[in-house]
Amino acid sequence: MLILCVRLESNKFKELAANAANTTIMNQPTILVVDDDDDIRFALTLLLEQAGYRVVEADGPVQCMQLLSRLTPALVLLDMNFTRDTTSGKEGLALLAQINPLNIPVILMTAWANIELAVTGLQNGAKDFIEKPWRKEKLLSQIANHIKSVTAKPVDTSWIAQSSAMQSLETLIKQLAPTDANLLILGENGTGKSQLAKRIHLLSGRCEAPLISLNMGALAESLFESELFGHHKGAFTDAKQDRLGAFSRAKNGTLFMDEIGTLPFHLQPKLLQVLETGEFTPLGANASENINVRLIAATNQDLASAITNGQFRQDLYYRLNTFVIRLPALRERKDDISALCEHFINQFAAKYNKPILPLSASARELLKNHPWPGNIRELSHVIERAVLICNGEAIEISHIMLDYQTTQSQSIPALTLEELEKQRIVEVLQQHNQQITAAAKSLGISRNALYRRMEKYQLEGLDESF
Question: Which of 53, 84, 135, 388 is the most buried (most CB within 10 A)?
Fold first, then answer.
């Protein structure tokens, strides 16, 4: 026997709108569903009410804005196309622009064929998107994540973003972190890609679930499937007990795949299949499991060239990079160097039970003008050595051990003539242990001329003995 569910008609619709004037009623978050398809709204209402949400429906932009003038839902599910056409998404984007000033999270609804349209929506302020037809578990997870994202997130004190380059990145991160979109992080070795993945995880609705990291370059090919998907006891010779794979350990959380560009070509289809189907089967198991993770990948390789050379699958690349985030090299974020130095000084002083000492002005200048080919990893090692050998009241140039062979091999086209002169003076002073006479002779200028230049560039705290 079929049980027909009575739809919300206009009177009931107005009653719900009035009752939902608060974000929650009886602790139930209210979700506004905006779609011109009656069946879609009906299916979503049933699903969401069963999950414990209150649902209010709108069949188009006009009704949506009328409702938003009387209530503040916890979240809006917004279709991209209405009566004007069925493909362009212009109506959905226009409505999104009207909702944005209300600071209500918006999840877009689109078909896979319109994935580029969904990306445009994310760039214009939407928090996430779902594909039609949706998977119930994933949709409910996305909704829960975004409703939780309005609460305070854990603070990562090691994340430094004071430079303009990092401030721009931070703005993008705060927009993308609450979504479930797959992210690809690009950056040189040592720039902090794993730290960025941690930052995104902490700002996401998945922050209370695990962040699982895998270095794909260190993964033995023979253990690839076991590490990612897990295995049951007896699945192969050495499988003496059940083991959960990375996808299972990261359930409801984030899976970070570092060095994804090193994944051998013949193993890439296995990862691609899981990302396409949303399912995996542990070795030795009879049933598949659904994945519920947010995937973040990272590489320092040029994947476009790898695709051209037949070393990386283009279809896998597109599955990984709903958004690409480029992490700046340290030389592109010099305004962060001082704060990073202070962070590492505190870290290593605690590690080695040493006093927390300040950087002298001259040491700070030296570090700021170094090209840092090894990026943050190199800076960390330099500060660690300085903390270990310093026995004075401040970390001076004499405590800073840099690889000048590497430094001199780096091109420095972005430096002005004055910056080049300043950097050269700092380098020579260090080479001659801050002895003014010897440094001046090496530079081919008088001692007084060197003093004048030191005053010009505010190089203080140097040993003026000779």
Answer: 53
Q: Rounded to the nearest 10 degrees, how much is the dihedral formed by the CA atoms of 365, 189, 345, 397?
A: -30
Residue 128 to residue 119: CA distance in whole angstroms: 9
List, for residues 202-236, the tens digit of each pLDDT value.
999 888 889 999 999 888 888 899 999 998 888 78
**Helices (H), ranges, 136-244:** 136-148, 164-176, 193-202, 224-229
Contact (CB, 8 A) for 267 and 224: yes
Q: Could you tell me where the DSSP H helices lie in 203-336?
A: 224-229, 246-249, 268-277, 303-308, 314-320
pTM comes to 0.61
For tokens 């004190």, what's the residue?
157
From 90, 94, 55, 62, select the one nearest 76 (Cα to Cα). Answer: 55
First to last CA, the chain: 101
Q: What is the pLDDT of residues 261-301, one digit of tens each?
A: 999 999 999 999 999 999 999 998 888 899 899 999 999 99
* Look-up of token digits 């349209």: 117
**Longest pairwise C-alpha distance within the chain:** 102
Residue 335's SS3 state is helix
E strand map for 407-447: none
Question: Which residue type is seen at 416?
Answer: T
pLDDT tens, position by position, 156-190:
667 899 999 999 999 999 889 988 899 999 999 99
Beta bridge partners of 323: 183
Half-sphere exposure of 290 (CA within 13 A, CB side): 7
Residue type for 424, please?
R
d(CA 186, CA 175): 18
Which amino acid is located at 368 in the chain?
Answer: K
Q: Helix (H, G, I), strand (E, B), or coil: what is residue 286?
A: coil
Copy the structure tokens of residue 408: 């001199």
